[in-house]
Amino acid sequence: MLGRRQAQSGMISLPARPVRTHGRRSLWLEQALAGEDPGAQSAVLGESHTDVCIVGGGFTGMWTALELKARAPGTDVTLVEADICGAGASGRNGGFALTWWAHFEHLVALCGPEHALSLAARAEQAVRSIGEFCEQRGIADAFSLDGWVWAATNPAQVGSWEQTVRLLEKLGASPYRPLDHNELVAKTGSTQHLAGLFEPVSASVQPAKLARELARAVREAGVHVHEHSQVRAIEHGRRTAVVLDGGSIQAEQVLLATNAWAAGIPEIGAGLVVVASDVIATAPAPERLTQAGITPGVCISDGRRLVNYYHATAEGRIVFGKGGGTLAYGNRFGASFDHPGRREALIRSQLLRTYPTLWDLPVQASWSGPIDYSLSGLPFFVRLRDAPSVLACAGFSGDGVGPSRLAGELLAQMLAEGGDAGLPAALRTVPQRWLPPEPIRYLGGRIVRAAVARKEHSEDLGQRPRVLDRVLAGMDPTGYEYKPHGRNLPAAGGAAADRAG
Q: What 3-state DSSP class applies to 369?
């Protein structure tokens, strides 16, 4: 593998990742770590050299490492993680592994119809590939291919998918089928759902169990994995070095796969908005769910911008998440994004609106984490301008469990071959959109988010939202409306975003 010429010398500082202690991890991760010694992998100490250093032990980094060893077995690959593999978004999401079909309008607008169809089909195959991995590794119970329901929970949401479906039909694709009312109630277990579509190739997962097994597979493939290794900076110039607390790693190429933490790098953060997403899980009560007609496995998202996403687990829990939490000031965040319980009452009220017969079922766990929303609505894969040996991927927008598998394939190809893996230019560029400077951006974001919440509350009550709230909600930079003959403009919709938490 050849090194890449450096544009100029310098240093990229990386924000510190908080290390979550016992009791602040997600329910998923607590379950996955049962009987495991997470401290078995030592931190980096001293100086070393590798062909490729991957920063970030989440799904994107680990899938890339596994794909890279399969594509180029002789490549020396090192992966470093500040906490333990799967401790970040990969072990703290809502447990959905979805495709890109709901993002199809964005794909067409950014990439054109041909690329859009190809990428969406590959994202669908990525979900299947995750299931194959789980089967091969003996964790089939961590993956359930029971599909996804795109639902309307108030009249304002009904038909929010019609433009996407029309575009798909025009291009000869049909990943969805409409549900009549009886089918909808049977799949979701709730009469609160007024209309909906069903996509069969989507899965519910125990994401942390998948992440921990993936970490084992990566080690078995010959990747040097160092957990508890906090990266402080990337030095670039005549050489590229990953600088850690206890040493440094010289590398021919570096991949930054740090999810929302990439927003701390100005070049990457310019295309991102960071907000929190929050999840609760009820105590297990399988008999209660059976009585209520709630089927485990099926993933459900509603059509609001501050999306509700939920599913029943095999052990009889309802896992219920909500987007649109804490907004990051200047894309910087810390302990305020790890606040279990801060929005628990709000989320539980939405759970009970959906499943009122579960009114006495207690919440047993809650967790939160940052989401890196891309200003294009899709992730991007870029080599840094001043450090072309450094490749970064970010912007999964709360929907990365499934697409991260595809990202691993694309990133491995880019690292092994040095090209662009056939990606269209729009996905190889940090998305650009003018946003006001801080503190106006932060204050304005809070005003817009509050307006979206009021608008959606009015719609839940069957009322027409105030004009001012509709106008302000339309300024949300992470919501989009597809324009076949013009630009893609912010919209108050965006129901497909943040579907997995």
A: strand
